[in-house]
Amino acid sequence: AQDDAPKDEL
Amino acid sequence: MNIFRLAGDMTHLLSIIVLLLKIQATKSCAGVSLKTQELYAVVFVTRYLDLFYSFISLYNTVMKIIFLLTAFTIIWYMRKHKVVCQTYDKEQDTFRVLFLIVPCFVLALLVNHEMSVTEVLWTFSIYLEAVAILPQLVLLQRTKNVDNLTGNYIFMLGSYRALYLVNWVYRYFTELGYRQWIVWVSGTVQTCVYLDFFYYYVQAWRNNERMKLPG
Fold this sequence. Notes:
Chain A has no helices and no strands. With about 10 residues, chain A is largely without helices or strands.
């Protein structure tokens, strides 16, 4: 599965 | 941002403050692994390169800068401060960090979302963070006696990771199509690294005694 979560975590 | 994520970030921040206060107040870094602190600096530098090209929120930017500055402040204390640096257990802190850095980098080259410099470095930082605490845990194992502040520092770092796990479960159920396998798998590994430490920490707390690790 393709991950496209934004890199909004630290 | 959900409450678990915020609690996780605050626990992370608090763990760093506890470590800095321990160093400043006791003028000692006994029991603290410089190798782990340097690995965290590498993690933050390679992950937060996006400070230069993407903006998520003021909160995000400020936290990134705080994590970077505090990481380098701790390293400065341990290497350069004339009193603190003499308390560093150099002979005991001998973990070969290349055994962590090289495999993480190779893995980042093999398993990533996109073959670009920033994406590979970001992925590398995710893998490296999962194992960056190992030199600290090995040092603890060697020195046996764990002072309260160092114990609390590691406990809070572990708690921060556990809260991130809950945050991912929450996001999975509340955000449509949200998934990030690389982060999830690495984060789960990272949390498991702390389980053994948690066991002895909680045991010491319940018996109301100083924490000791078995030989």
